[in-house]
Automatic annotation (TrEMBL):
This is Farnesol dehydrogenase. InterPro entries: NAD(P)-bd_dom_sf (IPR036291), Sc_DH/Rdtase_CS (IPR020904), SDR_fam (IPR002347). The chain crosses the membrane at residues 17-37. It comes from Bactrocera dorsalis (Oriental fruit fly). The gene is LOC105222742. Keywords: Membrane, Oxidoreductase, Transmembrane, Transmembrane helix. Belongs to the short-chain dehydrogenases/reductases (SDR) family. Pfam families: adh_short.
Length: 253
């Protein structure tokens, strides 16, 4: 990780769960981290969980990644605040609509899921890549995906439908390959990796559903996913880690 010391990493959805774990892990690995979230105050709380010597290297930036202008402003803020562009981007922000896909009056949930999981990733990746390309630097973009992007899990009648969520994750897998091809087309030193975890114990699900899932199925921790992010970006510059799939022991999918 020596080549990344003092470099800037940006993490979306950094206020909780996987995003918070990634932000903490990257700061402790020597990065200056910008955490994007609508709940900016949660990142300020996260700072207090860090060892004192690292706290000044975590910065909170309020951002709604579903809004293109908000994303653009976050990248401008990072450049102005830190005097540097983003070298590592972790696209983590994501949500799940838990109504049935075939149900009536679920349009807002579907749109919000697509806007967050797909368009948010597009907006952030576009800004990060072009900054890396213009500066001609080594860069790494990570997309937190899901095993639901590899196979649609059948959760059975006792758990809710995953709605449009798996479709967005399948799309992220396709986007990963498109980005890889585009980054090579311009002969950049930017790499792209997706990380596809199984069930992770986070608050992406409503508490009532989350408790049922925890009782029925094994799960990973957010720190497990953050470890995979660190491993991917620590590989040599000539190595393209295309996708990492991690599952909890005992998972039946």
């Amino acid at each position: 990780m020596e080549r990344w010391q003092g470099k800037v990493a940006m993490v979306t959805g950094a206020s909780s769960g996987i995003g918070a774990a990634c932000a903490k892990a990257l700061v402790c690995a020597g990065f200056v981290v910008v955490g994007l979230a609508r709940r900016q105050e949660r990142i300020a709380q996260l700072q207090q969980e860090l060892p004192t010597r690292f706290r000044s290297n975590l910065h909170a930036c309020k951002c709604d990644i579903t809004k293109e202008e908000s994303v653009n402003d976050a990248f401008k803020w990072t450049q102005q605040k830190l005097g540097a562009g983003v070298d590592v981007l972790v696209n983590n922000a994501g949500i799940i609509a838990t109504t049935e896909l075939s149900a009536r009056q679920n349009t807002n949930e579907i749109r919000n899921t697509i806007d967050t999981n797909l368009l948010g990733t597009v907006f952030c990746t576009r800004e990060a890549f072009n900054s890396m390309r213009e500066r001609d630097v080594e860069g790494h973009i990570v997309i937190i995906n899901s095993v639901a992007g590899l196979q649609v899990p059948n959760l059975g009648p006792n758990l809710p439908s995953l709605n449009i969520y798996p479709a967005t994750k399948f799309a992220l897998r396709a986007m990963n390959e498109i980005y890889r091809q585009e980054f090579q087309r311009y002969k950049t030193r930017v790499r792209i990796t997706t990380i596809s975890p199984g069930i992770v114990d986070t608050d992406i699900l409503p508490t009532s559903i989350r408790n049922v899932v925890k009782d029925m199925l094994p799960s990973l921790t957010s720190e497990d996913v953050a470890d995979a992010v660190l491993w991917a970006i620590s590989t040599p510059p000539n190595v393209q880690v295309h996708n990492i799939t991690i599952k909890p022991m005992g998972e039946k999918f």
